[in-house]
Amino acid sequence: MGYCAGIDGTRCCCLLVETRDAIENIEEICAVPGIDLIVPALFDLSTDYGVSGQFDHPDVVAALARVEDAARAAAIPLGNAALSKEQADALFERGYRVIAGFDALWLRGRAAEMQSWTTECNILCSLRFLSVLGFFLPRPMVIHLGS
């Protein structure tokens, strides 16, 4: 009992909405007193809908809208992850109040983006360029990053 009494008023109840069942019951879930934040977990949710990672799939979009509507109706703040400034701005515009700026999907997306441009070109690396990166080469060289 001592621990609970000591943290009274300092806890935050954050719910992740990850499943179709949660979507089907979101209005009832949001009616429970004491919820401080609702976070739609889009990757888990899209996976439960059978369209893993397809956040723009109509079922996922409709599920997200239902979560947003229920949270707003219950005056519960929304949170989510943004993979870019544009996504963060869009979430803030839609009323989200807690935005995480990094995610494994972001890292995967940036790696894929880098791979796409490195496979399309050869990169000329000079002694000066590589010395900025902390490398020392006796002469300029061409590095081909691609398949």
**Tally of discrete structural domains:** 2
Structural class: alpha/beta
Largest β sheet strand count, sense and barrel closure: 2 strands, parallel
How big is the Rg? 22 Å
Count of individual helical segments: 8
CATH topology of the largest domain: TIM Barrel
Helix content: 40-55%
Mind telling me the CATH superfamily name of the largest domain?
Answer: Phosphoenolpyruvate-binding domains
Distance between the ends: 62 Å
Q: Shape from CA axes?
A: globular
Architecture (CATH level 2) name of the largest domain? Alpha-Beta Barrel
Number of strands: 6
What this model shows, in words?
The protein has helices at 2-7, 20-24, 26-30, 42-48, 58-73, 85-93, 104-118, 127-132, and strands spanning 14-17, 37-40, 78-81, 96-100, 122-125, 141-144. The strands form 3 sheets. Strands 1-2 form a two-stranded parallel sheet. The model is unreliable at 120-147 (pLDDT under 50). It is α/β, with parallel strands linked by helices and 147 residues long. It has 8 helices and 6 strands, in the order αβααβααβαβαβαβ. The radius of gyration is 22 Å and the shape is globular. The protein has 2 domains: 2-102, Phosphoenolpyruvate-binding domains (TIM Barrel); 108-147, no CATH class.
